[in-house]
Amino acid sequence: MANKILIIEDDWDFQAMISAFLCEQGFDVESADNGKIGIKKALCSRPDLILMDYSLGDMNGNDAAFWLDHMKGTRTIPVILLSAMGGDPEVAEEFKKFPVCRGVLSKTLPLAEILDTIKAVIAKGAIPYHK
Q1: Taking the domains of the chain in order of start, what are their residue ranges?
Q2: Exposed/middle/buried for 62, CB within 10 Å: 0-12, 13-18, 19+?
Q3: Does pTM surpass 0.90?
Q4: How confident is the model at residue 130, as a pLDDT?
């Protein structure tokens, strides 16, 4: 069975590009256009990984990470921040404070590097339960 990735991204062009790339790599991909929809989809579909932008339209990545980290149904799902803001050290450090965070990447990285990080995080499995 293919690993399931939820992409939370408000830029439809980037969402379509990264979704198509990950599908070609054999992943089962689901997408959400903003943070609220993404959190709801995470609760319903229980993906193996969430790939999330920082700017989500209705909230920022830290707000979404807070909710994902504090909800019983999502707190064990690893999250990678994939954002143009990923290269900003302040954004990266703030996001890394959430236990669900398993990586911060810039959208400008080659797709092969993004894929390597995704595979490494999925290989580690779910995050141990935390309060």
Answers
A1: 1-50+76-86+119-131
A2: middle
A3: yes
A4: 55
Range of lowest pLDDT (2-6, 74-78, 98-102, 127-131): 127-131
**What is the distance between the alpha carbons of residues 22 and 29, in angstroms, rounded to a whole number?**
7
Nearest to 105 by CA among 94, 119, 117: 117
Q: Tell me what the pLDDT averaged over the chain comes to.
A: 91
Q: How many residues does the chain have?
A: 131
Q: Kindly state the tokens that stand for 24.
A: 């070609």
Alpha-carbon gap, residue 124 to 115, rounded angstroms: 14
pLDDT tens digits along 74-102: 999 999 999 887 677 888 888 888 889 99
The C-alpha atoms of residue 104 and residue 25 are separated, in whole angstroms, by 21
Torsion over CA: 119, 79, 33, 6 (sign): positive
Q: Are strands 28-32 and 101-106 parallel, antiparallel or unpaired?
A: unpaired
CATH of domain 1-50+76-86+119-131: 3.40.50.2300
What gap in Å lies between CA 123 and CA 41, rounded to an integer? 22
